[in-house]
Automatic annotation (TrEMBL), chain A:
Residue ranges of every copy of the ABC transporter domain listed in the record: 6-237
Family named by the database record: Belongs to the ABC transporter superfamily.
Taxonomic lineage: Bacteria, Pseudomonadati, Pseudomonadota, Alphaproteobacteria, Rhodobacterales
Keyword DNA damage tagged: no
InterPro entries (UniProt xref): AAA+_ATPase, ABC_transporter-like_ATP-bd, BCAA_Transport_ATP-bd_LivF, P-loop_NTPase
Protein name: ABC transporter ATP-binding protein
GO-annotated molecular function: ATP binding; ATP hydrolysis activity; branched-chain amino acid transmembrane transporter activity
TrEMBL record, chain B:
Subcellular location: Cell membrane
PANTHER family per the UniProt record, alphabetical: BRANCHED-CHAIN AMINO ACID TRANSPORT SYSTEM PERMEASE PROTEIN LIVH, HIGH-AFFINITY BRANCHED-CHAIN AMINO ACID TRANSPORT SYSTEM PERMEASE PROTEIN LIVH
Family: Belongs to the binding-protein-dependent transport system permease family. LivHM subfamily.
GO terms, molecular function: L-isoleucine transmembrane transporter activity; L-leucine transmembrane transporter activity; L-phenylalanine transmembrane transporter activity; L-valine transmembrane transporter activity
Listed InterPro entries: ABC_transp_permease, BCAA_transport_permease
Membrane protein topology class: Multi-pass membrane protein
Single biological process term from Gene Ontology: L-alanine transport
Keywords: Amino-acid transport, Cell inner membrane, Cell membrane, Membrane, Transmembrane, Transmembrane helix, Transport
UniProt-recorded name of the protein: Branched-chain amino acid ABC transporter permease
Length: 237, 336, 443
């Protein structure tokens, strides 16, 4: 079997010179697959994302994308080779219009990105409607759409989302998940951290349950949902 | 007729000078606010940057004049201005490379940057005084008046005269052009937008592949342009004296803060708020009221709220009021 | 700041302190030996005053992280105190307009107080705003109606010599604590408004108030004669002429082998140095005690983590106000001492570069957060400030020695004085870059 598209294997490390937060952590995502990281508070979920994106000091383990070793690339360089990252907070330019947010997402592209922008508008029609409004004036769900749209502008092959549904209503959450499935259908791999574990695992091809910076359970989303132990400990019964 | 006379007197002594001064402050405040937005510190060396840029422009102006180059009815300094801006840009970029870059890489706190800018202020102050001295320099040439009091009186038959000097006209026109160009740049060009993005959310800008060093470089060049233009306009309108430029720091900062630090539109609004308050609070309204009121009510005193020596107090009081009522400024600035 | 320097043992600091002290002492002794002892003592006296100013600023910045760039204003208020305390009152002024002047001033104060009370008591926003504005406008008109004629009368009295209200005719040393009180009062007002806002705003607010204080000193002629200056302030020490006439003094001088004129000037300067040293030692001891007290520890805890301190229930703004007032008061005391030393109040001579930003160089170079560091910084930078000028001249002589006489040469020679500002900036930047914690870092 060939390597998965993203293969982060045996990561151990932490912030700066501080103590290790991640211990021998492995995350893989295949093409067009949705992988979800869940776990209790302080399990290192967001830290794991940052490790994959090169924002952490990793002293053992390695990260490959499409077979290429990217362990030592800077976050900016990772954007250049096809990774998109949507942080949990402060993930839009509030003082700029929706369209300008998307333009800034495409900043590193030298080619014509109007096609991509069109695709983002098709995916998130509300953004087309509000494209000349300041992003800071939008509702929480719409802001998240701007954030995802901004990351899509580089045409990433792997999109990383850090709690995209934090602080939005259940209805908006369902809609966001629908959009994320649509994005995955276009062949983009998705790696996301979610607080709403049950709903996220329902759409996940693969799920990772993290505890204290270690892999605890790894399986398909459905299998994890069916696993009684996972249900009891992490999904509230 | 008296009513018209009153309007003309008001225009001549309040509206025109305040508009001119407001334009100068606005350009200065734009520089302060851009540095605050992008580099995230209050640059105490800004007044001296203005002095430096003006000094270079004056030196080039003198050189042009000695070679017999002039700009017709306009001041020669306008021809020298682009060279002044270029040299000031190089100087600021050099300062950034030698001084500020180190602290940026170390991610020092903003207040450390402020103290560093004090050091830069001292050195610039020394350089300017060393080269051109501490005295007053007048460097305006060309025609003096667009319209003089005498011409105006002859034209209108009014008792009150109205004079508009060329330097005043040039200040307002230049300020409008510069502000329009700046806003076009910030809102319509890719580099300008990337600067706004960087100012708005540095981390996300980095994630979007915006090169911070390039943003910083462009910022210094624009700041050099704004500071030199503001300084030259002020010097043409009044005179050039290094210490006066240092003192401009207070009204300029007041303008930037009143408008909302980091907000370019606010800087412009703030500049005019400060200028109009300064001029009208220190103007003796006796003359204007004399035209408007019936003779029996005419005031004996000058009707001057504060003597002109207290003009600093005006910027200061407005600043305090705005800070107390609306700490982020009239337009929403950054609130760290 | 690396981990190792942050936890530098106190012993290495002690060594640094002694070394820096030795260097300063050598520089001053060298000045005495190679230039003149009079000059050395001049440097020592202003060095003592600078050290006190630096101590005050260090209290605010080093202990509490407050960025005060209005030092000049507090220093000038100290200067004003010397005139109001030590000069004889101008009786005539009080006779012709005293009551009117005081009632005018009271009117002004009353207006502000009533406006503040109204602003706090009236709940409805619109009524409140209108009332406050109305009170201010009416109050201002009444104030000007009372105050302006009084000022006119006072300033008309023998303007060549007086034109002001004079002082209380008390010993000038009393002006030192009074100067501190003046500065403290101003600091309280400014602190009440600007503390609690962000640090940049405090900076601008202090910069503004210092300019206003100077403008006031320059323009309110009735108060201290404005730019006409007050000269001939009484002295806390002997006068040279009196010493020279004193046969006992002349004899002692002759025994020491110094001519009587030099001896008298040295004696006067020594007397000042003695007085200033007493003040410096008292303030330094108090500052050290404060630093080591629970209050000082709390201050530094607040400085290092304001959010945590606030979460622990500390009233950060109130603490900041205390230390801001104290630090400014020290600057006021130093300002009064300086005017005493000068023997005259010249409002035109107050310049922010010299009286605000230079003090900052002293604090940063000396070592912010360390009282001894601030004192050493005060002496060292003052020494440089005085000596850079002759050094600059000498350097320019050297550079231009090969040049032909002409405009460039005379310009270079004439501009040597401006090397001072340049050097101060350079020293500040070099210290910030290569020794950001200063010569004697915080323990």
């Amino acid at each position: 079997m060939s390597d998965p598209y993203l293969n982060a294997a045996g990561l151990t490390g932490g912030y700066g010179t501080g103590a290790d937060i991640l211990h021998d952590l492995t995350l893989t995502v295949d093409k067009g697959e949705i992988a979800v990281i869940v776990g209790p508070n302080g399990a290192g979920k967001s830290t794991a994302m940052k490790a994959v994106f090169g924002m952490l000091n990793i002293h053992t383990g390695k990260v490959t994308l499409d077979g290429e070793d990217i362990t030592n690339l800077s976050p900016q360089a990772r954007v250049g080779i096809g990774m998109g990252f949507v942080p949990q907070v402060n993930n839009i330019f509030t003082s700029m219009t929706v369209e300008e947010n998307l333009e800034m997402g495409a900043f590193i592209r030298e080619d014509d990105y109007s096609q991509t922008m069109e695709q983002v508008y098709e995916l998130f029609p509300i953004l087309r409607e509000k494209r000349n409004q300041f992003a800071g004036e939008l509702s929480g769900g719409q802001r998240q759409q701007v954030a995802v749209g901004r990351a899509l502008m580089t045409q990433p092959k792997l999109l990383m989302l850090d709690e995209p549904t934090a602080g939005v209503s259940p209805i908006v959450m369902d809609e966001l998940f629908d959009r994320i499935i649509e994005v995955a259908r276009t062949g983009i791999s998705i790696l996301m951290v979610e607080q709403n574990a049950r709903q996220a695992l329902e759409i996940a091809d693969k799920g990772y349950v993290l505890v204290q910076g270690r892999n605890r359970f790894t399986d398909t989303g459905q299998a994890l949902l069916a696993d009684p132990e996972v249900r009891k400990s992490f999904l509230g019964g | 007729m008296d009513f018209l006379n009153a309007i003309v007197a008001l225009a001549n002594f309040v509206i025109i000078p305040a508009t001119v001064y407001g334009s100068q402050l606005a350009l200065g405040a734009l520089g302060v606010t851009l540095i605050y937005g992008i580099l995230r510190f209050s640059n105490f060396a800004h007044g001296d940057t203005m002095a430096f840029g003006t000094m270079v422009t004056i030196l080039i102006t003198w050189w042009f004049q000695s070679m017999g180059i002039n700009f017709g009815i306009l001041p020669t300094a306008l021809l020298a201005l682009p060279f002044g801006i270029a040299i000031t840009s190089l100087f600021l970029l050099g300062t950034d490379r030698v001084v500020y870059k180190f602290y940026r890489e170390k991610k020092s706190e903003p207040v450390i940057f402020v103290i560093v800018s004090l050091g830069v202020m001292f050195m610039m102050n020394g350089i300017v005084r060393f080269i051109i001295g501490t005295g007053d320099q007048r460097f305006a040439d060309g025609e003096r008046f667009i319209i003089s009091t005498r011409e105006f009186k002859a034209m209108t038959g009014l008792q009150e005269g109205l004079a508009i000097r060329f330097t005043q006209g040039i200040t307002v026109v230049t300020a409008i052009i510069v502000v329009a160009a700046l806003f076009y740049f910030l809102n319509r060009t890719r580099t300008g937008k990337s600067m706004r993005a960087f100012s708005d959310n540095e981390d996300l800008a980095l994630l979007s592949g915006i090169n911070p060093e390039r943003v910083v470089m462009v910022t210094w060049i624009i700041v050099a342009g704004l500071a030199t233009i503001a300084g030259v306009l002020y010097g043409l309108d009044k005179t050039f004296k290094p210490f006066t430029y240092f003192q401009l720091l207070l009204p300029i900062f007041a303008s930037a803060i009143v408008g909302g630090l980091g907000n370019p539109l606010g800087a412009i609004a703030g500049g005019f708020v400060i200028a109009f308050s300064e001029v009208s609070v220190t103007y003796a309204f006796k003359k204007v009221l004399g035209y408007l009121l019936p003779e029996s009510l005419e005031p004996d005193s000058l009707v001057q709220l504060l003597s002109t020596d207290y003009k600093f107090a005006v910027s200061f009081v407005i600043l305090i009021i705005v800070l107390l009522v609306k700490p982020t400024g009239l337009f929403k600035g950054k609130s760290v | 700041m690396s981990q190792t320097t942050a936890h530098a043992p106190a012993s290495s600091n002690t060594l640094r302190l002694w070394l820096s002290t030795a260097v300063v002492a050598l520089l001053i002794i060298g000045t005495g030996m190679f230039q003149s002892w009079n000059l050395a003592l001049v440097i020592v006296n202003m060095g003592l005053i600078s050290a006190i100013m630096a101590l005050g600023v260090n209290l605010q910045w080093g202990f509490a992280g407050l960025f005060n760039v209005g030092i000049m204003g507090f220093v000038a208020l100290g200067g004003l105190a010397t005139v109001l305390v030590s000069m004889p009152p101008v009786e005539e002024a009080w006779q012709v307009a005293g009551i009117q002047l005081i009632s005018g001033l009271l009117m002004g104060v009353a207006t502000i107080v009533v406006a503040i009370v109204a602003a706090q008591k009236i709940a409805k926003a619109r009524t409140r705003n209108i009332t406050v504005v109305a009170i201010l406008v009416v109050g201002f008109v009444l104030y000007r109606a009372l105050f302006d004629p009084a000022v006119g009368k006072i300033e008309a009295i023998n303007p060549a010599q007086f034109g002001n209200i004079g002082g209380l005719n008390l010993p000038i040393i009393l002006a030192w604590p009074v100067g501190g009180l003046f500065a403290a009062a101003a600091a309280w007002v400014i602190g009440k408004t600007a503390l609690g806002l962000r640090s940049d705003y405090l900076a601008i607010a202090t910069l503004g108030i210092s300019e206003i204080i100077i403008a006031m000193l320059k323009n309110e002629d009735w108060l201290a004669r404005g730019v006409k200056n007050v000269i001939g302030l009484p002295r806390p020490v002997a006068y040279e002429v009196d010493l020279q006439r004193d046969p006992g003094f002349a004899e002692t001088a002759a025994n020491l082998g110094i001519d009587v004129t030099t001896a008298s000037t040295l004696y006067v300067k020594f007397s000042y140095a003695f007085l200033f040293t007493i003040v410096l030692v008292i303030l330094l001891v108090l500052a050290q005690l404060a630093l080591k007290s629970p209050w000082g520890r709390m201050m530094r805890a607040i400085r290092d983590n304001e959010v945590a301190a606030e979460a622990m229930g500390k009233n950060v703004t109130a603490r900041h106000l205390q230390i801001f007032v104290l630090g400014s008061a020290i600057c006021g005391i130093a300002g009064a001492m300086m005017t005493t030393l000068d023997g005259q109040l010249t409002p035109g001579s107050y310049q922010p570069l010299r009286f605000t930003f230079l003090i900052w160089v002293m604090v940063i170079v000396g070592g912010s957060g360390n009282n001894y560091g601030a004192v050493i910084g005060g002496f060292l930078i003052w020494f440089l400030w005085v000596q850079v000028e002759p050094l600059g001249n000498w350097l320019m002589q050297l550079i231009t020695s090969g040049m032909e006489d002409g405009a460039l040469k005379s310009h270079l020679l004439g501009s040597a004085a401006h090397m001072r500002l340049f050097t101060m900036g350079l020293v500040l930047l070099l210290v910030l870059r290569f020794s950001p914690r200063g010569l004697v870092p915080e323990n």
